[in-house]
Amino acid sequence: MTTTTASPATRGSALADRLRQPSFWVEWASVIGLVVLVAIFTALDPRFLSSGNIKAMLLASAILTILAVGQSFVILTAGIDLSIASTMTFAAVTFGMAMTSGKGLALSCLVAVAAGAAVGLVNGFLIAKGGITDFIVTLGALSAASGLALILSDGRPITVISAPLFKLSAGGFGMIPYTFLIAIAVAVLAHLVLFSTPFGTHVLATGGSVDAAQATGVRTARIKMAVYLIAGVLAGLAAILLVARVGSAEPAANTTFLLNSVAAVVLGGVSLFGGKGSIKGPVFGALLLTALANGLTLLGVSQFYQPLAVGIVVVGAAFLTRFEK
């Protein structure tokens, strides 16, 4: 038996062809952008790659990573969840109330996840069964969840004092915080669900074409309900990490997490039209946005410029998707 191997010239030509395809830059935009940012910020300030700063960035990226994974499932079905950050705030308040009423850590965690799941389930039901546009439903849920958080807490932060939560937030293996490990575990599980199960195939099929998916027997309504439920559950999990990090349940809406969760998904190469994308892309997108904010802060750039920088990066990534077939 004879085997043939490509010559270096052939491999070089194939690589050049790959680099000329917009889809390559869309798929790897977050990874390449992260490498470029690390190189620039390290050159401008060597403290950027210090162990303490790396740990701080990984800690800061954990919550956004989990939200981006949840948002990815929704966007892969050609939807969007504008309520994901408010759902996290609502779940954080229920978690804080459960903790302060003596329910214990385990039961309080279940309360937070259940609160997030309830919002996600309502979103999914109204979109899939009610036939209401996802933008309108989740925009309404954004307001409703924020309002419920303010009503339940009477507009005041709920202080949560818990040694296990403090250990969860402050501890880790070397430079890698526990919360980041949880976020990576969520991402790995999401990747397996998306690409190794029939459910994941149905998610991609629903996003690619609802009519075609229904013609092959996919129950697209159930799939849409499921992805909003997943986003809600992950918002509940993120709420626990948020309370552990801050030490209190803040009822104020945090729109930065909403915008950055969508931005991370766009940077990660997930198609806003659904049906195409990955989990690793949004994870690197979340890391990129965290590194961008951290690097600008380290350089002493005013926080007022950070949303502007994030906006420019996201629009640039979205511009790349314009050329993707």
From TrEMBL:
Keywords: Cell membrane, Membrane, Transmembrane, Transmembrane helix. The keyword Cell membrane applies. The keyword Magnesium does not apply. It is a multi-pass membrane protein. The chain crosses the membrane at residues 25-44, 56-85, 105-128, 135-153, 173-195, 226-244, 256-274, 281-298, 304-323. It is found in: Cell membrane. It comes from the Bacteria. CDD domains: TM_PBP1_transp_AraH_like. Pfam families: BPD_transp_2. GO terms for cellular component: plasma membrane. One of its GO terms (molecular function) is transmembrane transporter activity. InterPro entries: ABC_transp_permease. This is ABC transporter permease.
